[in-house]
Each structure stands twice: as structure tokens, then as C-alpha cells.
Write the C-alpha cells for this entry.
Amino acid sequence: MQEFDGIITPNGLFYERHHGGVPTIDPAQHRLMLHGLVERPLIFTMDDLRRFPSESRIHFIECSGNPGYSKPYGKTASDLVGLVRRAEWTGVSLKLVLQEAGLKPEAKWVVAEGADAAALTHSIPIEKCLEDALLVYSQNGERLRPQQGYPLRLFLPGFEGNMSVKWLRRLHVTAEPVYSREETSKYTDLLPDGTAREFSFYMEAKSIITRSSGGQRLNAPGFHEITGIAWSGHGKIARVEVSVDDGMSWQDAQLQDPVLTRALARFRLPWRRDGKPAVIQSRAIDETGYVQPTLAELLAVRGENYFYHNNAIWPWRVAAGGEVTNALA
Ligand SMILES: Nc1nc2c(c(=O)[nH]1)N[C@H]1C(S)=C(S)[C@@H](COP(=O)(O)O)O[C@H]1N2
Ligand SMILES: [Mo]
């Protein structure tokens, strides 16, 4: 992540996360079943799905365990928040496919199931399915790689990665969520009062400086460009602020055009390093006005037990000699 420039992640540099290995699926044999609270239950082949009008959109996907702990032990930007990427996704609007089957009025959730050994199952609110969900077959122009769900995956822009079920084989339209493992024992946040936050869906605004970041070295004082990425599951990034004085003052970084909704935004700020030790950090503000919190602010609300959905600011310490390290580790 810290070596990569621009805003699109090349296919070979995607993170991957699978709970039951990568299945080998013959696309000619693959079927998607759509049933439950619909007028006409349907079974689609890949050819059927490719006959629907296609759509292409640029969005990020992020694992909600990015990083999966409340304290930042990682040394590099990749260690801390490497489980995010941005791609051009091509497929069919889920809304269109649901309309083909005809939703019954009681339809409130769609339970998606994968064809992997984990049979990963997740309940998706119907509003999201009718908003911008895609049944994806291609990523950055080429067919999905096996690791990314070939031949078909669900993709829910801005929602936690776990809900974007890969190797999609079944959509069950229901009135209630199923309370699967992925939305109860996993991917919920245990709060200090003993209750758990569930169905949080959205990935909140986040950013990180990637150059210069942990493990890199600024070899001389003088001009350096500070750059990094910012994203929000709620929409567009409105602003990224950067501090080079340990959070005492903040300046607006420049955002690279175009800034797209639920996508990675690249920010840049020119910096003249005087050679003294410094702490540099970025914070994202999205179009809803939400401001990325510090780790201390997050811990005050969530306590120390939580594991997922950590969107804290990650400051980097720049030593007099130019070495960059994690300022919170
Ligand atoms: N069927 C299935 N879908 C899945 C998973 C899985 O293990 N099986 N992993 C989920 C998780 S936890 C994440 S973060 C994303 C990762 O997608 P990627 O491997 O394309 O990055 O897929 C999700 N969809
Ligand atoms: Mo994940």
C-alpha cells in the first residue's frame, strides 16, 4: 500500500480474504438461485446474467478487520490498513435482477450465500440491494480472479467487505435477517457495557499518509511531498487535513480529481522538513461532515474489547535522521 501511487489498485496487488479457501468453479456449471419472498423464483446461468444491461463503477472495498484490533501494532501503512483497495467493478445491478423476480411487499432482507467451503452467508437490507448493489463478474476490465469470487460476487459499495459475498450462488429474499455467524459472533463490536453493536454496515471515513510512512526514510531535510489515501463508505471525501506538528495545527491537503463516491481519494501536501523530529498525520472529513477520530477518541466510545471497524487516525513519527515509524506503537 505504501509503495502504490494513484487511485486504482492493480489486479495483482489486491488484498484477499477467504474464510474457507478458494473454490474452483466451472463458470459453465455455476448457477445463481433467487428465491424466497419473490413472485417468480429464478435460477440464472452466467450467460443469463451477462445478457442483462451491464454497469461499471469505481469504488473501494475494505475489510472491517482493517486493522483487526484496537491497538496499532503495525510497522507499515500496509500492516495497519492494507485490507482496502479500489477498482472498477463491472456487472449487473442487483435491483434489476430482483425486479425480474418481482419482490413481494414483505421483502425486507436478502440473504446472500457463497459457494465456498465456508458457505459464507450474510443478510443485506433490501434498501441497499435497491440502491447501488452490483452482481459483479469483472474487476478492472478482466474477469474476477478466483480469489476475488470468480465467476460471480456480490458487491455493496461502502459496506464492510465481509458482506460482499464471493462465489455467489444464492439470494434468499426474507422478512428478517438470518443472524449468521458473520453478523453475530463475528463482525459485531463488543461495547464496554457488554452489549454488541450489530449491523453497522458502513465503513466510516478513514485516511492514511502512505508517503512517507512507517518503514520508509526521508533521506534529507528540505522538500518532501506528503501523500496518502482517504475514503468513506458514506459517500465522497470532502476534505483531508494534514498536520506536521503532532496535531497542533492542520492544513487542507489537495485532493486529486475526480473525487468519486465510496472510492479512494488521493491527497497531497507539499512539506518542507526542517530536519527536526516531527509527527505527521492525516484526517478525513466526508460529505456528511463526519470527521475521522483519533484512536483515543475511538477507545473512549468503544472500550478496549472491540476488534472490527477501527477507523482511527494513524500518526507517523519522523526522526531527525529521517526514519519513519508508527507513532502510536
Ligand atoms: N463466499 C465468501 N465471500 C466472502 C468471503 C469469504 O470468505 N467467502 N470473505 C469476505 C471478506 S471478510 C472480505 S473482507 C471480502 C474480501 O474480498 P476480496 O478477497 O476480494 O478482497 O470478501 C468477503 N466475501
Ligand atoms: Mo473481511
Q: What stands out?
A: Residues 94-101 form the longest helix (8 residues).
